[in-house]
């Protein structure tokens, strides 16, 4: 084994990226240095939010921008090939890390996490943790109504199921197609779906949740967030996870803006906050328990072969898939 493949950005797209903006190149297998581990990736996550990094510098983004010639990155599960001495890692062990989009990765040992038997490997490529943390931060209580924008996506496909398991009395999501809506109701824990079909989402949400909502997990922003704010009951909690309506604007990346009636927020004591992973979490144990009982699935689409990764990203941004998109290397 002397060479390996990775996906690099060829050129910065002016609109949504297509396969032509990327290239799969052959490079020598990297050599790990002191404190580094060589990993043979098995699969990695393809996520629409990657567009933010492809657009250049975005203030406060925790990850660096991706420039032409750079290899893409994202969560991955791989097999340890060369562990450093004293690391506690064994050859053949499965780990998760952030250097996906390549067949082989050299990763600092403190940036890999060994996998155990609590969760199946694919669970670490889904947004199970993000969904769980958002609902926990939203303090879902038994009997409450939960609204998840982008309900068929990587976060939403987990959040609908988890909201139900946490005792929500009613779970509503939004999505872009009738096909996804049917699957959300049949498989993903949702009672009703708001379709992005040109009808104002606020009017649809008022119809399916006439008494309002108590918790919102917002992956989309824009009109979806505005609809959730309009439907928020006294004491409602809104957790902001993403802003896909702006990230997936076909013309240009933008920050979706929403007019806030601040006096209404005060009168109804509505909390709006960004998602935080700062607090210690029991997510893996809780999610593993649900999965072991057969109460929780990890919806995902498998794309075989790293050569198909650029097209998979374009299809993901176009909303073709439901659940998490995983490329098998």
Helical content band: 25-40%
Describe the global form: globular
Mind describing the biggest β-sheet? 7 strands, mixed
Q: What's the count of strands? A: 15
Rg result: 20 Å
Identify the quaternary structure here. single chain
Task: Tell me the layout of helices and strands.
Blueprint (H helix, E strand, L loop, with lengths): L2 E7 L12 E7 L7 E11 L3 H5 L21 E7 L11 E4 L6 E5 L4 E2 L13 H10 L7 E4 L7 H10 L4 E6 L2 H10 L4 E4 L5 H8 L4 E6 L3 H10 E9 L3 H4 L14 H7 L2 E4 L8 H10 L7 E5 L4 H9 L6 E5 L1
Parallel strand pairs: 8-9, 8-11, 9-10, 11-12, 12-13, 14-15
Antiparallel strand pairs: 1-2, 3-4, 3-6, 3-15, 4-5, 5-7
Helix pairs in contact: 2-3, 5-6
Question: What does this entry look like structurally?
Answer:
- The two termini are 16 Å apart.
- Strands 3, 4, 5, 6, 7, 14 and 15 form a 7-stranded mixed sheet that branches. The protein has a 6-stranded parallel sheet with strand order 10-9-8-11-12-13, with helices on both faces.
- The mean pLDDT is 94.
- The chain is built from 10 helices and 15 strands.
- It is globular and about 60 Å long.
- α2 crosses α3.
- The protein has 329 residues and is of the alpha/beta class.
């Amino acid at each position: 084994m002397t060479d390996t493949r990775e996906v690099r950005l060829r050129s910065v797209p002016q609109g949504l990226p297509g396969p032509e903006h990327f290239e799969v190149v052959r490079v020598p297998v990297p050599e790990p240095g002191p404190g580094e581990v060589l990993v043979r990736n098995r699969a990695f996550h393809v996520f629409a939010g990657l567009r933010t990094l492809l657009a250049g510098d975005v203030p406060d983004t925790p990850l660096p921008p991706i420039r032409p010639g750079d290899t893409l990155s994202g969560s991955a599960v791989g097999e340890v090939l060369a562990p450093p001495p004293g690391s506690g890692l064994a050859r053949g062990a499965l780990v998760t890390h952030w250097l996906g989009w390549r067949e082989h990765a050299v990763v600092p040992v403190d940036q890999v996490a060994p996998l155990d038997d609590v969760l199946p490997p694919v669970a670490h490529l889904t947004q199970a943790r993000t969904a769980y943390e958002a609902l926990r931060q939203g303090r879902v209580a038994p009997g409450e109504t939960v609204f998840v924008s982008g309900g068929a996506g990587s976060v939403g496909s987990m959040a609908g199921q988890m909201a139900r398991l946490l005792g929500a009395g009613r779970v509503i999501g939004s999505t872009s197609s009738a096909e996804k809506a049917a699957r959300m109701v049949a498989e993903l824990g949702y009672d009703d779906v708001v379709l992005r079909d040109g009808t104002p989402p606020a009017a649809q949400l008022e119809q399916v949740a006439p008494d309002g909502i108590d918790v919102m997990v917002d992956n989309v922003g824009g009109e979806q967030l505005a609809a959730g704010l309009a439907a928020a009951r006294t004491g409602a909690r809104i957790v902001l996870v993403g802003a896909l309506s702006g990230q997936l604007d076909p013309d240009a990346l933008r920050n979706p803006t929403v007019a806030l009636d601040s006096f209404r927020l005060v009168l109804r004591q509505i909390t709006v906050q960004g998602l935080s992973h700062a607090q210690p979490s029991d997510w893996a144990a809780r999610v593993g328990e649900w999965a072991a009982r057969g109460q929780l699935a990890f919806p995902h689409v498998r794309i075989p072969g790293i050569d198909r990764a650029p097209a998979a990203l374009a299809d993901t941004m176009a909303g073709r898939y439901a659940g998490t998109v995983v490329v098998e290397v």
